[in-house]
Structure to design on (445 residues):
RNA sequence: GUCCCCGUCGUCCAGUGGCCUAGGAUACCGGGCUUUCAAUCCGGAAACGGGGGUUCGAAUCCCCCCGGGGACACCA
């Protein structure tokens, strides 16, 4: 028989119910993101329920903006929740239970606050699914406030009441809570309630090996979106921090749901390695559908001010998708890709000063001819451009090794980039002809 | 300081007593390919924290030490 929900409904006993319980005192950082992910994966894997509970009992530090940020972060990560609660909505219930605790002699009032009494003797064992049995002597514990002077409940207390009322079966949370658990178990026992199962997942550390926190800089989940990281990549990366499935590194969301379970989770803390995230992002960039990636690229181009919306729309979806396919081979983030997308969009290109040595009189003469040929090109594929380029080089007695870099710089403004003929083909004859002609007029001095 | 957790390449993981001359990934170094940069391919360097046990045999089990982290709020 499962515990009754707040409303009194009964639930089947075997169904998994887990919750992610962030406090809205700031943005959601990747540590919290991973805790949310593990809970979500566990729920989805076991066909259970994923509950989101906003722990806003600290009314002076909680903000609505933070709540919105948390929602937005979870949505971006693709972690959908089945139920959502706000702890402040349940204050009456918390007070009711506090009274019950007092009636049972487990709580007492002092200085206006209500305190929970820790039994003098004995010890409490947390049967942790990951760490094993963790026993703490009661002498190590101190009585704790459960109701503040202003009658609002504190974390360790509200948490117990809500986990119980909401029928939580597994509490999956960060290892920093392991020390709180004996106190919470004592509260369950004082109330005659059965505690849920606990699984304390290892911490995520910053480069300095201390718990990842806001002071490590780029901690916010949404920052990663800002930096051009794909949610697929962050989810994949976070999942692999503390969890594994053999030697597999790349996982789709569906694979994660199918494979994730608590027994596969580690017990030691992990350092957040930005380099590996970037590698995974690159992997995911290359796996995305071209048109979807093209759309993401289009937004990013506008967002970064590389080109305006009208220009991007004029280029068209197909062209953006083709450009994205070229760009993703050497970009690790959407930001890098967007910042290199200019060559594929209409408009002039600025030539770098240090590349002017490429435009010798011979080269400029060849470029003039090439511009004409490209204007008349009837096969605007990579192959068509290659043929045209080779022919001009041949006619002018210039090695391709000399002409190609000049054309590249003329069209893209850079000496490096994707395969030249692919670049020309995606940019298209019109853009190529105009830029090659403009470069041919460059007077190097 | 006290209590709790943890300890395999720089980093993330594999490894659950013999398949380990310890495997994969990333990052790094060298080479091939290429108009360039990537990608890719080939090669390289790189770890079981230390000491005791247990065992025919230990990265795997036990103990001690050392190291790292976390918690010690009317924060969560």
């Amino acid at each position: 028989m499962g515990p009754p929900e707040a409303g009194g409904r009964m639930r089947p006993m075997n169904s998994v119910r887990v919750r992610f319980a962030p406090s809205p005192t700031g943005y959601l950082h990747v540590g919290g993101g991973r805790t949310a992910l593990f809970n979500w994966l566990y729920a989805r894997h076991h066909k259970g329920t994923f509950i989101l509970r906003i722990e806003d009992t600290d009314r002076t530090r909680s903000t609505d903006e933070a709540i919105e940020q948390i929602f937005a972060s979870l949505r971006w990560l693709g972690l959908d929740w089945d139920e959502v609660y706000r702890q402040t909505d349940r204050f009456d219930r918390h007070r009711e239970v506090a009274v019950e605790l007092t009636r049972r002699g487990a709580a007492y009032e002092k200085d206006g606050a209500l305190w929970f009494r820790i039994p003098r003797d004995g010890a409490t064992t947390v049967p942790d699914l990951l760490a094993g049995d963790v026993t703490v002597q009661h002498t190590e514990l101190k009585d704790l406030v459960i109701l503040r002077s202003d009658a609002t409940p504190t974390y360790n207390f509200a948490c117990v009441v809500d986990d119980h009322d909401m029928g939580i079966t597994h509490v999956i949370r960060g290892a920093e809570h392991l020390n709180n658990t004996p106190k919470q178990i004592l509260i369950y026992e004082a109330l005659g309630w059965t505690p849920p199962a606990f699984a304390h997942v290892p911490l995520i550390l910053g480069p300095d090996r201390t718990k990842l926190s806001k002071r490590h800089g780029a901690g916010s989940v949404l920052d990663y979106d800002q930096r051009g990281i794909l949610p697929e990549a962050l989810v994949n990366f976070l999942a692999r921090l503390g969890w594994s499935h053999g030697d597999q590194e790349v996982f789709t969301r569906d694979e994660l749901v199918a494979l994730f379970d608590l027994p596969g989770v580690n017990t030691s803390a992990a350092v957040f390695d930005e380099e590996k995230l970037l590698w995974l992002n690159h992997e995911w960039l290359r796996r995305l559908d071209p048109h979807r990636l093209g759309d993401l690229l289009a937004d990013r181009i506008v967002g970064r001010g590389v080109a305006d919306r009208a220009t991007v729309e004029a280029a068209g979806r197909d062209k953006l998708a083709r450009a994205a396919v070229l760009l993703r081979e050497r970009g690790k983030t959407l930001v890098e890709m967007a910042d290199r997308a200019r060559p594929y969009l209409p408009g002039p290109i600025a030539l770098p000063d240090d590349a002017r040595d490429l435009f010798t009189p011979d080269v400029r003469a060849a470029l003039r001819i090439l511009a004409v040929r490209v204007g008349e090109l009837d096969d605007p594929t990579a192959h068509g451009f290659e043929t045209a380029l080779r022919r001009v080089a041949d006619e002018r007695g210039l090695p391709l090794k000399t002409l190609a870099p000049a054309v590249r710089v003329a069209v893209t403004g850079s000496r490096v980039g994707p395969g030249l003929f692919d670049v020309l083909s995606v940019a298209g004859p019109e853009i190529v002809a105009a830029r090659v002609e403009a470069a041919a007029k460059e007077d190097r001095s």
Remarks:
- Residues 30-45 of chain A form the longest helix (16 residues).
- The radius of gyration of chain A is 30 Å.
